[in-house]
Design a protein that fits this description.
heterodimer, A: 121 residues, seven-stranded mixed sheet, four-stranded antiparallel sheet, 0% helix, B: 113 residues, mainly beta, six-stranded mixed sheet, 50% strand
Chain lengths: 121, 113
């Protein structure tokens, strides 16, 4: 069965960096578009970024563009989110998620349990 | 960017009754070349990640009970729960994946009356 396990969350000061990882198993990772989606405490879902199956295309929400970088290592079945210049408003649970489509345009059909990132001094 | 809105913000329905949630996109999410609406519906229960219910606006995900159905095209969409069950208490989100950024609606909370 599909498993997505996020790690790397924690408490970080404003302006600092953090890298999230997502270990994937149970499916053909190298054939799937992958997303990061976040949810601030008590708030709704916010799409963050998507990466194509082969890493050739990446797209971001305006709120993170220029600060966050999505990447993947298909040899390790792992998705990453490098987060730089973190702000208080980046505080959220970050979900790793699989798309039905290789390019992220098929609907998100599997989600990890999420990892909490808290940006605070 | 495509803005997604949902109505109502919340609703309370009696067990066994119908629940209807509306979702509107600021521009069409219908791709004319394949006649598909790039619109999904998700259910999120407290403390859990979201779960895909419907994709392509009206295709039920495998394993999702048939009391859940999606309809609509272009800019206006509806999620219907035909006979509300206790386990359907959750927040429901629509999302467009027609163009990046792939925006979500603000969510609709469904409770038992």
């Amino acid at each position: 069965q599909v498993q997505l396990v996020e790690s790397g969350g924690g408490v970080v000061q404003p302006g600092r960096s953090l890298r999230l990882s997502c270990a994937a198993s149970g499916f053909s990772f190298s054939s799937s578009g992958m997303h990061w989606v976040r949810q601030a405490p008590g708030k709704g879902l916010e799409w963050v970024a998507v990466i194509w199956y082969d890493g050739s295309n990446k797209y971001y929400a305006d709120s993170v563009k220029g600060r966050f970088t999505i990447s993947r290592d298909n040899s390790k079945n792992t998705l990453y989110l490098q987060m730089n210049s973190l702000r208080a408003e980046d505080t959220a649970v970050y979900y790793c998620a699989r798309d039905k489509d290789y390019g992220g345009k098929g609907g998100i059909d599997s989600w990890g349990q999420g990892t909490l990132v808290t940006v605070s001094s | 960017d495509i803005v997604m809105t949902q109505s109502p913000d919340s609703l309370a329905v009696s067990l066994g009754e119908r629940a209807t949630i509306n979702c509107k996109s600021s521009q069409s999410v219908l791709y004319s070349s394949n006649n598909k609406n790039y619109l999904g519906w998700y259910q999120q229960k407290p403390g859990q990640p979201p779960k895909l219910l419907i994709y392509w606006a009206s295709t039920r995900e495998s394993g999702v009970p048939d009391r859940f159905s999606g309809s609509g095209s272009g800019t206006d969409f509806t999620l219907t729960i035909s006979s509300l069950q206790a386990e359907d208490v959750a927040v429901y989100y629509c999302q467009q994946y027609y163009s990046t950024p792939f925006t979500f609606g603000p969510g609709t909370k469904v409770d038992i009356k």
